[in-house]
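Worked Example 4.2. Consider the chain below.
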Amino acid sequence: MGGRVEYRRLGRTGVRVSSLCLGAMGFGGWANDDRADAESIIHRAIDAGVNFIDTADAYSFGESEEIVGRALGGGLRDDVVLATKGYFPTEGGLNHGGLSRRWLTRAVENSLRRLDTDHIDLYQVHRLDPTVDLEETLAVLTDLQRAGKIRYFGSSSFPAHKIVEAQWVAERRGLARYVTEQPRYSILARGIEADVLPVAQQFDLGVLTWSPLANGWLTGAFRRGVEFPQTNRAGRLPEAFDMSRAENQLKLDRVEALVELADQAGLTLIQLALAFVVGHLGVTSAIIGPRTHDHLDSQLAAAGVILSDDVLDRIDAIVPPGTVGPVDGGFAPEQLVSPVLRRRPPAGEANPVTWTYNR
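Applying the procedure from the previous section yields the following structure tokens:
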């Protein structure tokens, strides 16, 4: 069974963080709107050894940050590595969103106020913004770091080539670098093993992964012959749970095989799933997202679990390395979403794409 939480160096920084990071997306109006209960879950995680908390200004439109800030009062703030994110609009206005200098400066100030703190330990850009030059984003993040408002900064859901490009831009322009990447990763969504994780290891980036339980598929709640629970995630991502889709039928087959494997290993499916993610050499921490105390307990039980080579080999046989389903990839580059960015225009028509050279 699980043991004590492990602590690891966060990329090339001198900061040590727990291998399980408490994700706060479920705190607030999106899921658990009982603020006192959410604060209690935060305190319980800290008592169990979790010293890493991740939130974002977009979660419940800022309410998550407020809950986290209040929970870290009374002296707890200094013992926690606090991470948040910015990119998505949290208020009306044409320029309220993205990764421009104008918006990120405002977004950081807003997050500091909601979190009731004078600095953010790790500030992450929530998504790539193809409309803003990488140098502009890195420059404002560097200025915010030098001003003491953020200690470090990282990226989230960046494709591998943009992770590399951002490192080059920082080096050639004399700017601070991203020190972390936050990608999606689970047994059922292994696509980053092909490129993002090797690149992160090459540049010594800390990697904190989101959705290690694959939108709830790896909790044991989604099984054959059982009525699927109505979750908030299923409401927001109906395609991920639409059983008329062949890829979801395949996912269910894989879940059944993983449940059998977990049983044989004397583990819960949650323990198997979380131990797999944090067991990768390139992963620093897995973000868990409990909405209740029972959720938290079931996920903390994975602390200290180490999977044998035999179990890992059997996982590879069930879900081959590098596998990612059509609805499990997380952020998709614009070129995959918009056909106009992939198709050459007819002769004489202007190319709709403007490429920016950042190096």
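The first helix runs from residue 35 to 47. The two ends are 49 Å apart (CA to CA). Compare this with Example 4.1 before moving on.
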